Amino acid sequence: MSLVPFPRPLLAGALVLASLGVAPAQAQSAPGYPAQPITIVVPQPAGGAADQFARPFGQALGKELGQSVIILNRPGANGNIAAANVARITPADGYTVFYGSVSTLAVNPHLYKDAGFDPFKDFQPITLTNQTPNVLVVGAQTPYRSVADVIAAAKAKPGALAFGSAGNGNTMHLVGLQFQSKAGIQLMHIPYKGGPAALNDVLAGQIPMMFHNLSAVLPFHHAGKVRVLAVADVKRSPLLPDVPTMAEAGLPGVESVAWSGMLVRAGTPPAIVDRLNAAMRKILDDPAFRKPLEAQGFEILSSTPDVFATRLKKDYDAMGAVIRAGNVHID
């Protein structure tokens, strides 16, 4: 993989994890930080669900730290290009923050022979920020009104019913594999370069359905342009109380909750990690910040670095098992 450095210089340092489950009462001293703009690297295209969260978060972080925060969208290779640049090129100084996700950090290392980064050795977690369940969504022009309808159609013509995703190995793809396995059906997978492109084709009737983040499809569901048939979570969404979980629809075990969080390069000074954690958690715990995003389908999270690291390891292991079972790979 070819790595291209970011266009502005950044600095370097060392790191340590904060104590498990408890936010520091006061961040360690980080003299002079931040003394220049901070960049949040988003490894997804502009206009998608990641941007819906990252941009207001960046604005709030800039106000909290008294410094400009730039959002840099750098899509490509399921997020590997952005992750590899942050992990291997940019200095460990806290001026480049990576908006990582379960897909990039817990899935990609299992899919690629060389993803270009190691999620555990190259990154220092700061805090989890948000999560949203993947949902089964169908176009309004389709005849499908329930999960049972989709399964019946798939069984009638094995391999003919298509579903889109944000790309091979994306969580949207993997939950589709879970769905097929539990339902005993065969679908046609159509990978796209990002979730927005796949959703556009669902809206246009080019493909009948996909699994996608609730936050991305919610406004289209309310507008009657798509129908959400089930939520791939252990609980119903409070924003769609009438939509069943996959278990309630007859497919227990089909679960996919896409989380995201902020990380920096390993080696970032502990004082800067603490400063960022304190600032970010203050924002994430603020009802004024949370409520508009919760209305869009995001569940806002806030954590210590240790809690984030634990969840990453857990999902890294779980996603590896799904990928091996589905024989999914990207050459």
TrEMBL record:
Coiled coil: none annotated. CDD domains: PBP2_Bug_TTT. PANTHER family: BLR1237 PROTEIN (PTHR42928:SF5), TRICARBOXYLATE-BINDING PROTEIN (PTHR42928). The keyword Signal applies. InterPro entries: BUG (IPR005064), Bug_dom1 (IPR042100). Keywords: Signal. Pfam families: TctC. SUPFAM superfamilies: Periplasmic binding protein-like II. It comes from the Bacteria. This is MFS transporter. It comes from Bordetella bronchialis. Residues 1-27 form the signal peptide. The keyword Signal applies. Belongs to the UPF0065 (bug) family. The lineage of its organism: Bacteria, Pseudomonadati, Pseudomonadota, Betaproteobacteria, Burkholderiales.
